[in-house]
Amino acid sequence: MTEDHNLPRASKASLFDRPTMKASLLLSLAILSITLLGWMSQWFWPSWMMDLVSSFQVQYAIANLLLWFLLLGHSLKQRLRRKDCKTAYTGLILGLACMTCQASLLGNWYRPPTPVAMAASPKPLQTVKLLSSNIHPGNEDYAPFLKLIEQEQPDLVLLQEATALSLKKLGTLQNLLPHHLHKVPPGQRKAGEKYPPAGTAIFSRFPLALESATPGSPFDKAGISARIQSSSSNSGSSGGSEASSIGFQVYAVHGLVPARPSFYRQRNDQLAAVFSAANLSDDPAIAMGDFNTTIWSPTLNSSQTQQLRPVRAGFGVAPTWRPNLAFPKGLQWLGNLFWIPLDHCYISPNIVVQDFRTGPDVKSDHLPLIVELKLPIPKTP
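Below the sequence we write its predicted structure tokens.
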């Protein structure tokens, strides 16, 4: 009777060894939940909250990797104690599957894109370098930014959050880039305001023609649109002259910060207006700047951007923004944990990508974005 009575107890105790099963189960569920959150946030449309959640795919992958190693350590510990490890082993396999899904999601941006079919085109190509930077309205030291301009020698510089003060201090840019347009409100910081009024500006080596937009429209609020035209004459081998010109459309974009649902909808309208105008352009089009959305947002899927394609494809995630200023003084280093890619460049199908990279810290919460593109040059005798 004693043996019969004790046997169920022993089996029951081994089956419900709570510390062993609970830790493995909780770690496994955490990995699965983070993975589902990352994937689902890309497909819930429209949703303000899910759009924000979709921004941190790199952080989700790192968190899952750490949790998986904790689960691995836990399973090894249980193995040494000769306890049941089935739950931990199942969690390890599940974790590997989840991390494989996340790796494929991030790896899409490291795969070389399909080559642009321009090799057989008789038109020559001209390289154009663009530099875009959100210089932050609270910044008053532009020496690092000017040094970067001298080093890179770009053909176009697109500025977001430029102020009247920054335009004044960056006046030396006109020595290198004589043509410029801006949509920057005048005036200094008013009482109660954290920063002075800011806007968008373009500095160019080539002549600029401002594209007009309906005042107050989503397209008008998204930034500046300009047509760029450059021409030169070259002597041919037969003694005649040949005129070559390059013409393209550029959109300096600064989407509204989606801090609330109404701002989220306005930002989507702004980006949709830019993509629509760029796709209707007869010239090659470039949309570049601070979109205030990440590469995983449904706002930037192919159905929204239509023919425009991301220059970032094949060059990696390349995060550009860190929320340092969102943390109190002394804890701003925590912003380094939340780098996300908010700055983008989208181009027409007939433009070839030569280079894409981020620049150094220029005392802003954004890193500059630098791209080199090859545009077709129509030749006429």
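The domain at 125-380 is CATH 3.60.10.10 (Deoxyribonuclease I; Chain A).
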